[in-house]
Design brief:
The protein has seven helices and four strands; from the N terminus they run ααββαβααβαα. It is mostly helical and 174 residues long.
């Protein structure tokens, strides 16, 4: 099943590259951790007739940051079609503080001049906004997967046919 394996590896690479591209296009590449964590793993059984393809995002578990960015999180006021929600707990402040400093976000006065920024207050305001409004789904991975999954059926059929042809040729020659 060498051709099927190659086709699945090509599919996985396309999905990973496309998801990374979606992150860049949507402006979601901040530290690069999520971008660099998008990966796939293809496991082939010893017999060579069974395959398992897994994709990983972020910290390699469900309910991870990558999952939140892809599927979004419903807030207290704004609801998205997602399994995640902020109901009783605000998002953590520490990552927001780091994000503010990395992005060099500063407060301005009425004339548009920079003022002395209280980062904790600013982080709280952003934290409260996320709690109320949630995180809009970006679907960066979902779109990439669905786009390439559509053509996978035909490509796998062709690869399987080639593998079957090779198997029949090998068997008949013995």
């Amino acid at each position: 099943m060498l051709n099927v394996e190659k086709e699945l590896q090509k599919f996985a690479k396309k999905v990973v590259r496309s998801a990374q591209s979606q992150l860049i296009q949507q402006g979601k590449r901040n530290t690069g951790k999520l971008f660099n964590s998008i990966d796939s793993r293809l496991d082939v059984s010893k017999s060579g007739y069974s395959f398992s393809l897994d994709f990983t995002l972020s910290d390699f578990k469900p309910d991870s940051y990558g999952d939140f960015v892809d599927k979004g999180v419903s807030g207290k006021q704004v609801k998205y079609n997602t399994p995640y929600t902020f109901r009783s707990k605000m998002p953590p402040r520490e990552p927001i503080l780091k994000w503010i400093k990395r992005r060099r976000i500063r407060q301005r006065d009425e004339q548009g001049r920079f003022t002395k920024t209280n980062f904790n207050s600013l982080a709280f305001l952003i934290q409260r906004s996320i709690f109320n409004k949630g995180i809009k789904p970006s679907l960066f991975f979902t779109k990439a997967f669905e786009k390439h999954f559509k053509g996978l059926d035909k490509e796998l059929q062709e690869a399987y046919a080639l593998d079957l042809e090779d198997f029949m040729e090998f068997t008949l020659n013995k």
